[in-house]
Amino acid sequence: MMNLDWIPKSDQLRSPYSKWVFDQAKKRSLFFSHFESRYSLPVPEVWGGSSEEAIKSFDGYSVLEDKFSDFRTDCLVASFHPGHHPKWSAHELLHNLLGFFYHKQATDLEVLLGARISEGLPVALYYFLDEAWAVKCEKHQGSTSFLSEHCQDCLSLQDNEAESADSYLLNSAREFFEREKRSIENSLKNKTSGELIFHGINLASDAHLYLQSHRDRLRDPFIDNVFKKFFSKNPVYHNISEFLGQSEVLFNALTENEDLPPVDMDSLEYLKQDLAMRLLQMARLCGEGELSDKLFAGFSILENQDSKSMIDSFVSFYEKLYEEYELIAPKKFFALGYDFHPTYGHDIDAIESNLSVCFQESLAKLAKQERENLVFAFTRSKNFWQRSSLAKRFCQFLESIEHQELSSFQKEGFFCTEKSNFHQIQYTENKFQTAASFHPYLECIDLSEKDLSDLNLETGGISGEVVYLKIPGRSSYHFFPLAKSEFLALKKYLKTGQVEGLAPSVIDELERSNFIIGVRSAGNLS
């Protein structure tokens, strides 16, 4: 499994509270799954899905995440997303320390309240407790500092130690938690969902969306057997009041720095749970019949064998079924996002595909086997588990192994390494716009001809730096580095339709008339 110590220190030591969470998580053998390399199985129709493959979109910096389909309160392997804020690590682990609510005859109200309780304590940590010890920029100091989570200036100060905690945020954490508790108690008493909005935080709204996403899955009669067989040692609560009370016990332990009672669990038990849930999902995708019956036979392997023999036997079991039936390939089924087997563990195809967005030419220079081996080694390195762009982490990995093509990768992928060093000029609907930062989904601001002139675009880019072309694809963006002369040729093409000076591959893509020009600059467009 992965090593919790590989998670950046800025995540682990952000505050005394995040340190407590990591300390308790280590005692309980908890670990992370890497979001980028975990293959998301299709959601069965019987669970309210379409049984179609879910595509994780890559924007050139990181993989985009669906908030509710990718998150399950009953998955006790925490999710690590390198594109998220450092506060997310402790938030995710705290979900797993708390446990979850489940009852096979739970009403919609109970499932909704269970989801809301699951979020209360982690949200109190994320917005208030973890922020109380964070050093802030001048703009975000004071009573509104918990709103500064996406401020780059604040993030640049995250390794600095605060002289004291922000008492306003500490008090707000307790006030938020206690008001949530009372609101849930009233919902139970009155049998209504209710809601509480605290500084813009509305857990009831999120709980409704969680219910919609997981109602059918949690009512599947087969899932009850999985919980009984593989979750008996975990903190699983079958009563809402009991679960709410446990969340208060955990809140007090967190804020008073008290150890949690030990749980008789090791990393193998969490692996069994993860595999059991994937096996159930695979069986439900296959419907009822011979194949699903054969898949269900795999539960006995997970339940009755010890560590080494269990893993080998279960992998062999699935591989043999794959040879006989039309199933999701083992390399995808066993792409759990962490190391557990010499061959399987990460979605190598997805990582290589995303890397090719950033390093198309450099990767093409390598033989197929060398490329696959390199990506495989990258997913099993500490570099993979850092918080930066995929391109930057890969270049750091290449540097650590002294790869001979390092300079080629660094040169080609420079525009995918840092969000803050790039700005975007988007061309769509026959006009230019600018986005506020290196992210394709932010709202754009219209630019006039004067704005374009002020940005010095006629001379090939701000501060004379190289620009690039970024064109939307099905699941990612295609990048074309542009020299100044090519940029001028692009401008000419947009005005006259003449393609002189542009590469054929660029011309083909431009037919879509929707693309982004990226400008590298230390300045700010806004």
Flag low-confidence runs: 433-468, 470-479, 519-526
Helix content: 40-55%
What's the overall average pLDDT, rounded?
83
Strand order of the biggest β-sheet: 9-8-7-12-10-11
First-last Cα distance: 44 Å
Estimated share of beta-strand residues: 5-15%
Count of helix runs: 22
Helix and strand content put the structural class at alpha+beta
Protein architecture, described:
- By secondary structure, the chain is an alpha+beta fold.
- It has three domains: 4-333, no CATH class; 348-416, DNA polymerase, domain 1 (Orthogonal Bundle); 422-520, no CATH class.
- The chain is built from 22 helices and twelve strands.
- The strands form four sheets. A six-stranded antiparallel beta sheet has the order 9-8-7-12-10-11. Strands 1-2 form a two-stranded parallel ribbon. A two-stranded parallel ribbon has the order 3-6.
- A hairpin with an 8-residue loop joins β8 and β9 (444-446).
- α2 packs across α3 (88-98) and α12 packs antiparallel against α13 (307-324).
- The two termini are 44 Å apart.
Sequence-ordered SSE layout with sheet pairings:
Layout: H1 9-12, H2 16-27, E1 32-34, E2 78-80, H3 88-98, E3 100-101, H4 108-132, H5 152-155, H6 167-190, E4 197-198, E5 201-202, H7 203-218, H8 221-230, E6 236-237, H9 240-256, H10 267-285, H11 290-296, H12 298-304, H13 307-324, H14 330-333, H15 348-358, H16 360-364, H17 368-379, H18 390-400, H19 406-412, E7 422-428, E8 431-435, E9 444-446, H20 449-454, E10 467-472, E11 477-482, H21 484-496, H22 504-510, E12 514-520
Parallel strand pairs: 1-2, 3-6
Antiparallel strand pairs: 4-5, 7-8, 7-12, 8-9, 10-11, 10-12
Helix pairs in contact: 2-3, 3-4, 4-6, 4-7, 4-9, 6-9, 8-10, 10-11, 10-12, 12-13, 15-17
